[in-house]
Write a structure and sequence with these properties.
Elements lengths: L3 E4 L2 H9 L4 E6 L7 E6 L2 H19 L2
């Protein structure tokens, strides 16, 4: 799992940082220069947290 993972959603990036994942860099989005891309160090913890937050989001959408 070496490498990086790009996150395009600010709220998800904040949750990942608050969970202790390593933000490596922030870069300008190539498709829209008004947006940014959050680059995290890929790890087992990051993958676990991405799955957790994805499931949390999906469950909250069911009841909306």
């Amino acid at each position: 799992m070496n490498g990086v993972k790009r996150v395009f959603k600010k709220s998800l990036a904040i949750q990942l940082m608050q969970s202790g994942n390593d933000l490596i860099e922030i870069e300008v989005n190539m498709r829209n220069d008004k947006l940014v891309v959050y680059i995290f160090r890929d790890s087992a913890k990051l993958q676990k947290d991405l799955t957790y937050f994805d499931n949390l989001h999906k469950n909250s959408m069911q009841y909306s």
